[in-house]
Protein backbone atom coordinates (compact mmCIF):
# COMPACT_ATOMS: atom_id res chain seq x y z
CA UNK A 1 0.00 0.00 0.00
CA UNK A 2 1.22 3.50 -0.82
CA UNK A 3 0.67 5.97 2.01
CA UNK A 4 0.63 9.75 2.11
CA UNK A 5 2.13 11.33 5.22
CA UNK A 6 1.47 15.08 5.14
CA UNK A 7 4.05 16.94 7.22
CA UNK A 8 2.34 19.47 9.47
CA UNK A 9 5.46 21.61 9.30
CA UNK A 10 3.98 22.86 6.02
CA UNK A 11 0.59 23.60 7.60
CA UNK A 12 -0.83 26.79 9.03
CA UNK A 13 -0.26 26.36 12.78
CA UNK A 14 -3.01 28.84 13.56
CA UNK A 15 -5.50 26.32 12.14
CA UNK A 16 -3.76 23.05 12.85
CA UNK A 17 -6.87 21.06 13.73
CA UNK A 18 -8.61 22.12 10.54
CA UNK A 19 -5.50 21.43 8.43
CA UNK A 20 -5.09 17.93 9.89
CA UNK A 21 -8.74 17.06 9.45
CA UNK A 22 -8.73 18.30 5.86
CA UNK A 23 -5.91 15.98 4.80
CA UNK A 24 -7.22 13.04 6.82
CA UNK A 25 -10.72 13.38 5.38
CA UNK A 26 -9.19 13.53 1.91
CA UNK A 27 -7.48 10.16 2.52
CA UNK A 28 -4.07 10.72 4.11
CA UNK A 29 -3.24 7.73 6.34
CA UNK A 30 -0.38 9.19 8.37
CA UNK A 31 0.27 12.57 9.95
CA UNK A 32 4.02 13.29 9.84
CA UNK A 33 5.29 15.26 12.84
CA UNK A 34 8.79 16.74 12.66
CA UNK A 35 10.41 17.15 16.06
CA UNK A 36 13.61 19.24 15.81
CA UNK A 37 15.98 19.95 18.67
CA UNK A 38 18.19 22.78 17.39
CA UNK A 39 21.25 20.53 17.83
CA UNK A 40 20.94 17.56 15.50
CA UNK A 41 19.38 20.00 13.02
CA UNK A 42 19.75 23.79 13.08
CA UNK A 43 16.08 24.50 13.65
CA UNK A 44 13.66 24.01 16.56
CA UNK A 45 10.09 23.00 15.72
CA UNK A 46 7.77 21.56 18.37
CA UNK A 47 7.60 18.74 20.87
CA UNK A 48 5.41 16.81 23.28
CA UNK A 49 2.82 19.45 24.28
CA UNK A 50 1.84 20.11 20.69
CA UNK A 51 1.71 16.42 19.77
CA UNK A 52 -0.52 15.52 22.69
CA UNK A 53 -2.83 18.47 22.11
CA UNK A 54 -3.48 17.51 18.47
CA UNK A 55 -3.73 13.77 19.17
CA UNK A 56 -7.52 13.89 19.34
CA UNK A 57 -7.88 15.66 15.98
CA UNK A 58 -7.72 12.31 14.18
CA UNK A 59 -7.24 8.59 14.76
CA UNK A 60 -4.83 8.28 11.82
CA UNK A 61 -1.25 7.14 12.42
CA UNK A 62 0.99 9.69 14.14
CA UNK A 63 4.34 9.31 12.39
CA UNK A 64 6.87 11.15 14.52
CA UNK A 65 10.19 12.03 12.86
CA UNK A 66 12.69 12.73 15.62
CA UNK A 67 15.45 15.04 14.39
CA UNK A 68 16.90 14.93 17.87
CA UNK A 69 20.28 13.93 19.30
CA UNK A 70 20.14 10.82 21.47
CA UNK A 71 16.38 10.39 21.07
CA UNK A 72 16.24 7.47 23.55
CA UNK A 73 15.80 10.15 26.23
CA UNK A 74 12.36 11.09 24.88
CA UNK A 75 10.88 7.87 23.46
CA UNK A 76 8.67 7.06 26.42
CA UNK A 77 7.17 10.54 26.56
CA UNK A 78 6.68 10.81 22.80
CA UNK A 79 4.87 7.47 22.87
CA UNK A 80 2.67 8.66 25.74
CA UNK A 81 1.76 11.71 23.67
CA UNK A 82 0.30 9.42 21.04
CA UNK A 83 3.08 8.54 18.60
CA UNK A 84 2.29 5.30 16.72
CA UNK A 85 5.47 5.19 14.67
CA UNK A 86 8.71 6.72 15.95
CA UNK A 87 11.55 7.39 13.52
CA UNK A 88 15.02 8.10 14.83
CA UNK A 89 18.14 9.10 12.89
CA UNK A 90 20.96 6.58 12.71
CA UNK A 91 23.39 9.53 12.85
CA UNK A 92 21.85 10.82 16.09
CA UNK A 93 22.17 7.62 18.12
CA UNK A 94 25.32 6.52 19.94
CA UNK A 95 23.64 3.14 20.34
CA UNK A 96 21.19 2.64 17.50
CA UNK A 97 20.37 -0.97 18.34
CA UNK A 98 19.40 -0.21 21.92
CA UNK A 99 17.39 2.87 20.92
CA UNK A 100 15.38 0.69 18.52
CA UNK A 101 14.71 -1.67 21.42
CA UNK A 102 13.49 1.20 23.58
CA UNK A 103 10.94 2.14 20.90
CA UNK A 104 9.73 -1.48 20.67
CA UNK A 105 9.53 -1.80 24.43
CA UNK A 106 7.26 1.21 24.49
CA UNK A 107 4.94 -0.40 21.96
CA UNK A 108 5.47 1.87 18.95
CA UNK A 109 6.48 0.95 15.42
CA UNK A 110 10.13 1.61 14.58
CA UNK A 111 11.50 3.79 11.81
CA UNK A 112 15.18 4.52 11.16
CA UNK A 113 16.16 7.55 9.09
CA UNK A 114 19.37 8.34 7.24
CA UNK A 115 20.55 11.69 5.91
CA UNK A 116 21.27 12.15 2.20
CA UNK A 117 25.03 11.63 2.60
CA UNK A 118 24.74 8.56 4.84
CA UNK A 119 25.18 5.32 2.87
CA UNK A 120 22.50 2.68 3.16
CA UNK A 121 25.14 0.15 4.27
CA UNK A 122 25.13 1.98 7.65
CA UNK A 123 21.78 0.40 8.50
CA UNK A 124 22.32 -3.00 6.87
CA UNK A 125 22.57 -4.92 10.15
CA UNK A 126 19.48 -3.45 11.75
CA UNK A 127 17.13 -3.76 8.76
CA UNK A 128 15.38 -6.88 10.12
CA UNK A 129 14.47 -4.95 13.28
CA UNK A 130 12.65 -2.02 11.71
CA UNK A 131 9.20 -1.42 10.27
CA UNK A 132 10.28 1.48 8.10
CA UNK A 133 13.41 3.11 6.73
CA UNK A 134 13.29 6.84 6.03
CA UNK A 135 15.59 7.94 3.25
CA UNK A 136 15.95 11.70 3.67
CA UNK A 137 15.75 13.38 0.30
CA UNK A 138 16.90 16.76 1.67
CA UNK A 139 19.21 17.66 4.53
CA UNK A 140 16.83 17.62 7.48
CA UNK A 141 15.88 20.80 9.28
CA UNK A 142 13.55 22.80 7.08
CA UNK A 143 10.51 22.35 4.89
CA UNK A 144 10.31 23.74 1.39
CA UNK A 145 13.73 22.63 0.13
CA UNK A 146 14.48 21.08 -3.23
CA UNK A 147 15.05 17.34 -3.21
CA UNK A 148 18.59 16.03 -3.72
CA UNK A 149 18.44 13.83 -6.79
CA UNK A 150 21.14 11.26 -5.86
CA UNK A 151 18.93 10.06 -3.01
CA UNK A 152 16.69 8.39 -5.59
CA UNK A 153 19.33 5.79 -6.24
CA UNK A 154 19.53 5.02 -2.51
CA UNK A 155 15.82 4.25 -2.52
CA UNK A 156 16.25 1.96 -5.51
CA UNK A 157 19.20 0.09 -3.96
CA UNK A 158 17.51 -0.24 -0.58
CA UNK A 159 14.35 -1.66 -2.14
CA UNK A 160 16.30 -4.28 -4.07
CA UNK A 161 18.46 -5.14 -1.06
CA UNK A 162 15.28 -5.68 0.99
CA UNK A 163 13.79 -7.87 -1.72
CA UNK A 164 16.96 -9.98 -1.89
CA UNK A 165 16.76 -10.52 1.86
CA UNK A 166 13.01 -11.16 1.92
CA UNK A 167 12.33 -8.03 3.98
CA UNK A 168 9.13 -6.20 3.27
CA UNK A 169 9.54 -3.04 5.29
CA UNK A 170 8.17 0.35 4.28
CA UNK A 171 10.47 2.84 2.63
CA UNK A 172 9.63 6.46 3.36
CA UNK A 173 10.97 9.50 1.53
CA UNK A 174 10.93 12.98 3.04
CA UNK A 175 11.88 16.36 1.64
CA UNK A 176 11.13 18.16 -1.59
CA UNK A 177 8.58 15.63 -2.79
CA UNK A 178 6.05 17.25 -5.11
CA UNK A 179 3.22 16.21 -7.40
CA UNK A 180 5.68 16.60 -10.28
CA UNK A 181 8.46 14.35 -8.96
CA UNK A 182 6.64 11.83 -6.73
CA UNK A 183 6.40 9.23 -9.51
CA UNK A 184 10.19 8.94 -9.56
CA UNK A 185 10.24 7.99 -5.86
CA UNK A 186 7.40 5.52 -6.28
CA UNK A 187 9.13 3.92 -9.23
CA UNK A 188 12.33 3.62 -7.18
CA UNK A 189 10.42 1.67 -4.51
CA UNK A 190 9.29 4.17 -1.88
CA UNK A 191 5.81 3.52 -0.48
CA UNK A 192 5.40 6.10 2.31
CA UNK A 193 5.51 9.61 0.94
CA UNK A 194 6.04 12.64 3.18
CA UNK A 195 5.11 16.01 1.82
CA UNK A 196 4.76 19.34 3.59
CA UNK A 197 4.72 22.23 1.13
CA UNK A 198 3.22 20.30 -1.78
CA UNK A 199 0.27 19.27 0.38
CA UNK A 200 -0.41 22.35 2.48
CA UNK A 201 0.56 25.13 0.10
CA UNK A 202 -2.62 26.02 -1.75
CA UNK A 203 -5.63 23.74 -1.51
CA UNK A 204 -4.70 20.90 0.88
CA UNK A 205 -7.75 18.83 0.04
CA UNK A 206 -7.15 19.03 -3.67
CA UNK A 207 -3.41 18.38 -3.31
CA UNK A 208 -4.04 15.31 -1.16
CA UNK A 209 -6.51 13.95 -3.68
CA UNK A 210 -4.00 14.50 -6.49
CA UNK A 211 -1.26 12.60 -4.63
CA UNK A 212 -3.63 9.71 -3.95
CA UNK A 213 -4.69 9.57 -7.59
CA UNK A 214 -1.03 9.13 -8.59
CA UNK A 215 -0.54 6.46 -5.89
CA UNK A 216 -3.23 4.30 -7.45
CA UNK A 217 -0.95 3.77 -10.45
CA UNK A 218 1.70 2.25 -8.16
CA UNK A 219 -0.21 -0.05 -5.83
CA UNK A 220 2.15 -2.96 -5.16
C1 LIG B 1 12.50 18.32 6.81
C2 LIG B 1 11.35 17.57 7.41
C3 LIG B 1 10.26 17.34 6.45
C4 LIG B 1 9.62 18.59 5.88
C5 LIG B 1 9.16 18.25 4.49
O1 LIG B 1 13.61 18.26 7.59
O2 LIG B 1 11.77 16.30 7.89
O3 LIG B 1 9.29 16.44 6.94
O4 LIG B 1 8.55 19.08 6.61
O5 LIG B 1 8.71 19.39 3.89
P1 LIG B 1 8.69 19.58 2.31
O6 LIG B 1 7.78 18.54 1.74
O7 LIG B 1 8.17 20.97 2.16
O8 LIG B 1 10.10 19.42 1.80
ZN1 LIG C 1 10.19 14.78 8.36
SSE topology:
Layout: E1 3-6, H1 16-25, E2 30-36, H2 48-54, E3 61-67, H3 75-80, E4 85-89, H4 96-105, E5 109-114, E6 132-136, H5 151-164, E7 170-174, H6 182-188, E8 192-195, H7 197-200, H8 204-216
In terms of per-residue confidence, which ranges show pLDDT below 50 for 5 or more consecutive residues? none
Beta-strand content estimate: 15-25%
Mean pLDDT: 98
Major sheet, described briefly? 8 strands, parallel
Helix-strand topology string: EHEHEHEHEEHEHEHH
Strands, count:
8
Q: Report the structural category.
A: alpha/beta
Work out the helix count.
8
Helix content percent band: 25-40%
How far from one another are the termini?
A: 6 Å
Rg (C-alpha, Å): 16 Å
Shape: globular
Bound molecules: D-xylitol-5-phosphate, zinc ion
- Within the largest sheet, what's the order of strands? 1-8-7-6-5-4-3-2
Brief sketch in words of this structure:
The protein is 32% helix and 20% strand. With 220 residues, the protein is an alpha/beta fold.
Explain what you see.
- By secondary structure, the protein is α/β, with parallel strands linked by helices.
- Helix content is 32%, strand content 20%.
- The chain is built from eight helices and eight strands, in the order βαβαβαβαββαβαβαα.
- It has helices at 16-25, 48-54, 75-80, 96-105, 151-164, 182-188, 197-200, 204-216; strands at residues 3-6, 30-36, 61-67, 85-89, 109-114, 132-136, 170-174, 192-195.
- An eight-stranded parallel beta sheet has the order 1-8-7-6-5-4-3-2.
- β6 (132-136), α5 and β7 (170-174) form a beta-alpha-beta unit.
- α5 runs parallel beside α6.
- The chain is globular and about 40 Å long.
- The model has no long low-confidence stretch (mean pLDDT 98).
Amino acid sequence: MVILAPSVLGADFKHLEREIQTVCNAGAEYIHLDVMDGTFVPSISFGMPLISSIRNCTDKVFDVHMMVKEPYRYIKEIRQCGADLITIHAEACGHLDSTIKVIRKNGAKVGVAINPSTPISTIDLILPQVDMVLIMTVNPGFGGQERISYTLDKVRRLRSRCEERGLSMDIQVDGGVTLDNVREFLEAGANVIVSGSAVFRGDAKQNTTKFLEIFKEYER
